[in-house]
Amino acid sequence: MHEAIEHLVYKSEDSSDSALSSLDQQIRTLVRASKMPSPYIELDYQTEPSFFSALSVYGHRHDMILVRPPGFETLAGLGIRSVSRAYLGGKLVDLGYLHHLRFLPEIR
Question: CA–CA separation, 57 vs 50, rounded Å?
C-alpha cells in the first residue's frame, strides 16, 4: 500500500500557494467526515475557510502524510507533525507536535 501514501512538507509562509487549493478542500472535507466519537457528544475540528492558513497556529513547518488508497477518489487519511519554536530549559528549541490524525470512517 506504499503507493497510497504521500509525504508533503509545508511551511506556514507558503499559505498563498494556489496549487494547494484542491488539497485544502480535500483536507477540510476529510476533517468534517471524521468526527471524534463519544457516547455523549461528537467533536469535530473545522478550519474554514482555509486549512493551510490555520496551520500556522501549530508551528512554522509541517510534515504531512496524505493517504489515498486505491479505490478512493479523494483523500482518505491524514497525519501531521508540526514544528514550532519554544523555550525548553532556557534554550530556544524546535518542538514537534503530532495532530490531525484522521481517517475516513469506512477505513478505520
Answer: 13
* Residue 34 zone, left/alpha/beta (φ > 0; ψ -120 to 50; rest): beta
In angstroms, what CA-CA distances link 3 with 7, 19, 66, 74? 11, 22, 11, 14
- CATH number of the domain at 2-107, out of 3.30.450.20, 3.40.630.30, 3.40.50.2300, 3.20.20.380? 3.40.630.30
The amino acid present at 100, given as its one-letter code, is: H
Residue 84 phi/psi, 5-degree rounding, is -135, 160
pTM equals 0.85
Spans of the chain, pLDDT less than 70: 1-2, 15-17
